[in-house]
Amino acid sequence: MTKEILKCSNCDLYTLKAVCSKCGEKTLSTKPAKFSPLDKQGKFRRIYKKKYKGL
Question: What digits encode the pLDDT tens for the residues 18-39?
């Protein structure tokens, strides 16, 4: 068992268990990705976000 909160991607239930008690799907971490100043794809993500911001 982990000490972080997890979320089921199927039914959106938050739990501390590795498997959702409601639907039986595997749960995922809710932590955001780590920030890196050496992000190789950051330039393309910012261009995409700027281009499709209105959508």
Answer: 999 899 999 998 887 777 888 8
- Which amino acid, 11? C
pTM of the model: 0.54
Report domain extents, the chain: 1-30
> In 10 A of CB 28, how many CB atoms?
11
3-state DSSP assignment of residue 53: coil
Alpha helix ranges (H) inside 1-55: 42-51
Q: Dihedral, CA atoms, 36, 37, 38, 44, nearest 10 degrees?
A: 90
Q: What angle do CA 6, 7, 12 make, to 5 degrees?
A: 160
Backbone angles phi, psi at 15, to 5 degrees: -155, 170
